[in-house]
Amino acid sequence: MTGRPIGVFDSGVGGLTVLRALQERLPRERFVYLGDTARLPYGTKSADTVVRYALQAADALVHASVKALIVACNTASAVALPAMSARHAALPVIGVVEPGAEAAAAASRSGMIAVIGTEATVRGGAYQRAIAARLPQAQIRAAACQLFVALAEEGWTDGPIARATAQRYLEPLFRDEGLAGAAAVPDTLVLGCTHFPMLRAVIREVIGPTVRIVDSAATTALAVERSLHERGLLSSSAAAAGLRLLATDGVARFAAVGTRFLGRSIQPHEVELVDL
Ligand code: DGL
Question: What average pLDDT does this structure show over 106-129?
Fold first, then answer.
């Protein structure tokens, strides 16, 4: 069992930012990454559709004999995690929202926290609930920043278009509304979408140097390590370490765009095309 791979799922290439953190934290593990590139984006779809797609992706990974399922997609974590956990109750099923909320609650001093994500993530309120569960006094502002997904995929992560988009989305979140007794502006920003770390520099430029930026990659990797350790599922040998990449469409595009997200070159022949 310990030699089995860890399954990592995202709607596309964004989850490679989480995979990168997982590989750093768990260098002895074997991973199977599935990007549902044929159906990206999930973030603009209805909850029912996201649940249906996520369950199909989970089934495909379970078919690949994974020992754990990591939902490296904020939208799928926010909307479909209960359904995925119920369907695969024998496996650890770990999403990115709870670890992201944990990191936000730990980072914030004032309790005023801004969350950005896709439309579906923000609409469902999963981050808001997960942060409030840890920090009941938290004041949370949330905004959907759907265009960031396209900018990150396109590689337009700096320059005037990225900056103008970031200003348009973020300035209202960080506006001082002068509410008596309330903290003026958030002191922490949660990047509640796996694509958004690619825009970190331009986001930082817009929100200034003092706001803490939190993304869930590192905390998710820690949560995965903890869960596998508790269940005695950590790999005992580095010999099995490795990575299998699966995509539902566009192997060449997956390799080109994914290279930026993973931070190392991916060749098209490394990516297997699968049908869900
Ligand atoms: N991976 C998705 C997320 O983290 C973003 C892309 C999408 O909309 O599918 O929410």
Answer: 96
Give the range of the structural domain holding residue 130, as residue numbers without chain letter: 98-216
Question: Which amino acid would we find at residue 31?
Answer: F
Active-site residues, by number, are 73, 193
- Rounded to the nearest whole angstrom, what is the distance from the C-alpha of residue 149 to the centroid of ligand 1? 7
Burial class for 94, CB neighbours closer than 10 Å (0-12, 13-18, 19+):
buried
- pLDDT score for 236: 87
Q: Is the CB of 99 under 6 A from ligand 1?
A: no
Predicted TM-score of the model (pTM): 0.93
Please give the Cα distance from 115 to 231 (Å, whole number): 32
Is ligand 1 within 6 A of the CB of residue 191? no
What pLDDT band is residue 25 in, cutting at 50, 70 and 90?
Answer: very high
User: Ligand 1, residues 11, 16, 81, 153: which to mutate, most atoms within 8 A of Cβ?
Assistant: 11
1 is a domain residue: no
Reported as a single tens digit per residue, the pLDDT across 211-220 is 999 998 999 9
CB 50 within 8 Å of CB 42? yes
Q: How far is the CA of 242 from the centre of ligand 1 (A)?
A: 25
- Same domain? For 25 and 125 the reply is no
Residue 238 sits in a domain whose CATH number is 3.40.50.1860
Q: Quick one: 228 and 207 in the same domain?
A: no
Task: Decide: 28 and 235 in contact? Cβ < 8 Å.
Answer: yes
Cα of 178 from ligand 1 centre, angstroms: 33
pLDDT on residue 44 = 94
197, 216, 235: which is the final residue of a domain? 216
